[in-house]
Every structure is written in structure tokens, then in C-alpha cells.
Amino acid sequence: MKLPAVAIVAAFAGGIALGLYSPAAQNTSLHLFLVTCFSTVCLLLLAGMLLASLHRLVLAAMASALIWVLLGVLGACIEIQPRASDHIIALVDAARIELKTPLRWHGKLRDEPARLPWGSGCEVELSGVEYQGKFLTARGGLRVSFTPRSSEQTLPDLHAGDEVAVLAQARRPQLYRDDGAFNRREYLAQQKIDLVATLRAPELIERVSTSLPTMGARVARARRALREEIDILFAGTPQVAGVLRAMLLGDRSFVDRQEATDFQKTGVFHVLVVAGLHVGALAAFLFWAVRKLRFSMMWSMSFTLTLLFAYVAVVEQRAPVLRAAVMTAIVVLGGFFFRRLDLLNSAALAALLLLIAKPLEIRDSSFQLTFVAIGCIAGLAIPWLERRVQPYARAIRGWRDVTRDAAHEPKQAQFRIDLRSLARWVSGKLPRRLGIPAENVLAGGIAVSLRVWELFVLTTVLQIGMLPLMARDFHRITLAGPVVNLAAVPMMGIIVPLGFLTLASGLLSPLLGKILATPLGWLTLLLIHMVQWFAHFPRWSYRIPGPPLWLVSVFLTTLVLLMAIFRLHHPAKQRVAWGLTTLLLANAVAIGVFPFAPRWSPGKLEVTILDVGQGDSLFVVAPGGKTLLIDGGGSFGGFAGQELHVGSDPGEEAVSPYLWSRGFQRLNVVALTHAHQDHIGGLTAILQNFQVGTLWVGREVESAALVKLEELARKKKILFAHEMKGQKFSWDGVAGEFLWPEISTGEAASSAKNNDSLVLRLQCGNRTMLLPGDAEQQAERDMLVENSEEVLRADVLKVGHHGSKNSTTAEFLKAVHPGVAVISVGEDNPYGHPNQELLDRLKLAGVRILRTDRDGAVHVLTDGNGLEISCFVACPEMVREHASVQAPAPNQEQKANQ
Questions:
Q1: Which pLDDT belongs to residue 624?
Q2: What is the pTM of this model?
């Protein structure tokens, strides 16, 4: 079967890639490019028509492909044009608005206010902002969250479409400036969220006016009603309610982080994400319903599409849902016109429509995963099943009727004969009244086994086909996926239609809703327990660095060639298919095992101060390759009385991706300076994601977070050691010495203190680095008394306590006498770090200042003589003024480059 849509979308997607990544296309004037592109398209169109009239079909097809390539380039160039001048981010970048103080924001509610685990939230489509006594027109999206301090505090009665004014200090979403880090800012921008804000009191948001109810507002109210109905029906089982919110309505706010991780470990996280499977399950249910009701073709199509798009409107309208809905609509419309559409062609047509609407979708990992998955199903699994399994599934139908044998191929006809013989043998061993039922059970069991085998083949092909993208984007290998999906997918196929039937019934009749909610709750709880049980097997899921680009390219090229071979009719087809399959599996093993060495600089000491927001995390690589991670940043552990694992986790979103981007899977040592949340919070993810040899901890304290971390270390069989002042180590020519804290008396302190931080000095040749954690004045004063200036002297100082005014005192700074100071600090943090007094002290001392909130991750590299410093964000001031950088060895060349 020919696949014209596949060729067209391939050409169009190639053009988009050229437009996105070609400097020539991006630097050309848009007007000039539009004229040039339009003229070229017209010429190619005329040339194609002329070639077609001359029966030069190959050349005409090439002209057509070039037209689609040019259209793709044009679409990409239009899409990447700068934001409008009145967009809120453009205003912030142009310094026309500063986000350092609370401002009054004006706009319209996009949706109904949503209940959240910690309170409530809403999204505002901005129309303007009051700034310095003036009203500025501003466009963009603002997400506002509110946490009540008491049960009396509630937001006003607001609804979608209301004009509101919000008094709050907005900020841009968290952005970790590290290689490989998850880009939350871009992720939220795809949802049209540009700013986030926390409301301090409910009185600070007010309704300015109420607009006439629109269709969108009515849909939003319906969505809110369905969410509230779930909460009512499953009030006694919040875990079930949270999972059903995710499965039915796309709201994962109430799915605990550990619960979500369990679904990821077992390869069934797609169950929690409203996407193709959910739309497919609902479409299949609707198709079954219209067939049972004996609707005409016209009414069947109208009924199915109406309810399908009503479902898309009610659930959160994310790209995966829209993609699945477009594909389903194409299939339904094709059936109406009596066309049996090829799944690959249908998928390609859907991709083309989506890319025409939003060319930048091509960069979205979910878009890529969606169509790789469809390609695997339509290009590999279905052709193989059609030849190997489905003929036997069809042969079971009417298996007792001997006259039907001739309608099947010889192998299937023999299968029917053997089945009848086996059935007669089984029934002959049983009493007469049980003979026929036993034969039916035997045939039914074989039919079910074939369907289970089909599902297993589908899930296995999907797991293998999506392996490189899953490893690249999510860094997880799941071996249990094919097995768990055998149960999870059929259960989801029941839960989704039953869930909507229950919600609809509950809105009409509370009693009927409660009756249907009972089996729905049991089935959902069974799904949760099954996932949790499989997730407890540690070897069935593990984390992995992303595969090299060349390996992904080889894998996908092999996959495409294998799909093409499956559609050919050639004598050598089977031999070539076996060869390509072997190559594909070899690539899959290489991706899953990751046999590649990590990237580091042999013979040199590396220290990287990572950007983890308001926290600390440093990665050290010795000249021989030994690794030390100091702290992991902090994660949000929930609000008071609600210990929920939500919010940003730098260990998972910044530190781990950075290590994976360099190919590291093992850490020799992980060190915790002290048990404050902004240092210990991210280490849980580190211990779970990497093979860790030893955990170093300073002073023992009575901290729940530290107790959990130590329990995890023991569970992972990680060695445990306390490090104190005076202890030393030597790694490949690097001398490490702990200058603080004091030796513990053996009793755990009541709480963690900044002045109990591990203070580590690293020396490589003539170069030294001092890493004082959060040590403040008292610890600095004691270290000055107990150590000579020669011991404290350092080329590079990681400034203590994120640049607090209580750290890096003038006396301590004079003793250390650094050439470069690096401040690990969060962007626009509420503590005012780094303090201006400290910055003035550093400038007065002639120290070059680097900051993670401005420069991103700071990478320091030395061979013991030279010193190289680079930043994730360009730090040109270091390049221009490197000669002024002070160091204890002034005769050695210092080098700072990007």
C-alpha cells in the first residue's frame, strides 16, 4: 500500500528542521524570505505540473517534495520570530517592568479555580499590569497559587472568564542553568504559562467584572463539576480519587510523587497521562455502543465525533490528547467514506495537520514519542501479527464448522482440525453434560491466549521502539513494561469508559453514581496495588544516561528500514529482515547497558558548582576519575501537615541530568555538608539514580530528612562515614582536608546548623579550592584561630551560605585571598542572597564574582598550574579581565574562558 502522507510529512518535517537549525534561514529578513519562498514554491509548482503532463512522474514527485520542504522552512521561520513587544516576557527582558516587587496584574481567568493539595490555584490570561503608577498593556499567562493559613481563608467565588486583578509578586518559573537539566520554564511556556506567583491573602485577588458565559467558560465549569464529582464519590479513598483525576481528566495534582515514580518504574506511566490510549479506549467504547444501538453510518460518525471532541474539550487540552483526537477523527471519517485507511498514512496525515498548526511541535518529546509509537505499531507489530497470529485468531471463529476450513490457508485449516481433535479428546475424558462446555472453554482459552500474545507483542515492540527516546528524555529503562502492560492496558480500557459513565450517572443520580463508583474504585485500587507490587522489584527498572546521538540515529534508521522491509514482497525479504532485527536489538542492548565511558578531563581536577536554585550542589572529579558529589540541592517536601512529594526536585531535575549528560552512572562518594533542606533534599534522588560507594556526613543531627537518607543508604548497601575536622584523603594527586566541623561528642545535635557544615579544602599542585558549605561567622572565626593563612589560602572560594551577610567576613576573606568567588544562589530568592555588603567586600578585595543565578553552572578545571573557568551562561567579564584574577601563585598563568 502506498503511503503518500508519510512522504509529505517527512518532507515538511525536514523543512521545519532546516528552518529551526539553519543559520541562513534564521538570519534572513522575514519579508525577503517570504517573497523568495513564495516565488520558489510557485516555480516548483509550475515545474511539477509541467513534468507531470510530460509523464516525468519521478521528477514531478521531487518537485512536490521540495515544495513541502520549503513550506516547512517557512513555517519554522515564522514560528521562531521574536515575541510581540507587549508580551510580558518581552517587557521584562527590555527592563520595562521589574518583577522585584508586588504588582497589580489584570486579566481574565482561563479556567475555573482548581483545588490543589496545598490549597488552590488559577491561571490568568494577562491583559495588563500596573507599574510605577502607569497601566501597561501586557500579554501572557500568569499562574497563581494560594495556600490558606486557616480553614476560614478561601478565594473569592471566581469563575472562568471573569476579569480579575491580582496583587502579587510574580516571577519567572524555576530554570536550572546546567547541561541536561529539565527546562521547567520551557515546559510551562508550552502550556502558555509565563509567570508564576504566590497569593499571600485571598483579599489580594478580586473580581473586576463578570463576562457573558462563553462556550469555553461552560466547558471549564463542566470540567470543574467532574473533578468535584470524583472528590465526592471517592472521598474515603483519596488515593483512588487522585489516580482517577489523572486518568479521566488529566489532572495529576493529587498523584503523589512516589506513586508517579512507581508507574514510571513499571512502564505504565502512560496510564496516568490522558493521551492516545485513553482516547482510543473511549473511541472503542463509543464504536461498540453505536453498533449495539444499530445507528446508521451518518449517525454513528456524528455521535462518535461529537462525544469524542466533547471529551477533548473537557479534559485538559494538552497536545497528546489533540493528536489522538485528530487521528481518531481521520479514521472515523475514512470509514464514513468507505475507506480502509492505512494506520501509518492516517498517523502521517494527523502529524501533518498538527505541524502545519504548530511547527515547533516537532521539538516536543511527547510528539516524537507519539509518532514513533504509532510507527512501531503500524510498521512492525501489526504487519507481523497479521502474518503470524491473526490468521489463527480468525480460524477459531466457527471452529466446529468443517465447511469453513477451505476458506483458510492450509496451516490455519490444519489448526482447526487439530483443535477439533483436541476438543473431542478433552470432552471424551469428561461426563457428557460437561463435554460441550469444556470444548467451549478450551477454544475460548486459546482465543484469549492469542489476544494476550498480541498485546504482549505490541507492548514489547513499543518498549523496544521507544527505547532511545525514553532513555534520552527520561533516563529510565523499564524491563517490567511488557508484563505489567498486559494487565494495565485492559484495565485502563475498562476504567476510562466506566469512569465517565460513573461521573455522568453521579451528576444525574447520586445513588446510581455511588453504585457504579464501587466497582470503579475496586478496579482502580487493584491497578494501583499491582503497579506498586511490580515497582518493588529493584532490578526491573533502572536509570541510565542518554544514548549518544549517533546511536539514536542508527537505531531509528534501522527501525525505518525494518518497517520498509516488512511492506516489501521480495524473496530476500526474510533474510534482510532478520539482519535488520539483529542490528536493532544490538542497538537496543547498547542503549540499555550504556557501555560508554563518562566524559571527564584525565590528569586534571574538576570542580563544578551546579545551579540548583536556592541551594548547594558541587561535583568534583579527581585527575584519575574518582567522583565526589557534595550536596544535592533542596526539594519541596510539602506544606505543614501535608507531607506531599510535589514541586521541583533539583536532585532529579538538575543534578542527575547533569551527571547523565556527561555519562556518569557511578559516584564514588556523596557528601552532605549539613542536613538543611536546601542541601539534603535532592540527595534522595541521587542515591536512587546512581551507584554510590560511600556517603559522607558531618555532625549527626536529629533530622527526619537525614534519618530517611541514612535508611535509604543502608537499603542500597552504601557505606556510611562521618567526616570531621582534621580528616584527610588523597585522590590521584589531589589532597583533600576537612577544616570543619569540630569532632562530635557522640550525641546527635537537636537540629542542623549552618556552622556545623563540612568545610573541605582541595589542593591540586599549586592550585587550591575552598568549599565551606553554609559555614558562617562563628565557624569562620574558629577556623581562622586554628589554621594558618597558608592552610586557608585558595584560588577559588565557593562563598558560604549563598552569599549571606553573615558569611565570608572581611577577616576570613583576607586569609583565603581568593582570585575567584562563586556564589551558589537562587534567582530572585526571598532571602535577598547574595547580600550587597558581601558583594561590596568581594569587589573591594578585587575578587572576580561568579553567580549560579546569573552565570549558571560554573566549571573550574586545573592541572595544578593553570586555571580554567567556564560557565553554562557566557561570562565574558572573566575572559576580558582574567589578568586581574588574584591567586597565591602569581607567576602561574591563569586562564578563564567560555
A1: 94
A2: 0.89
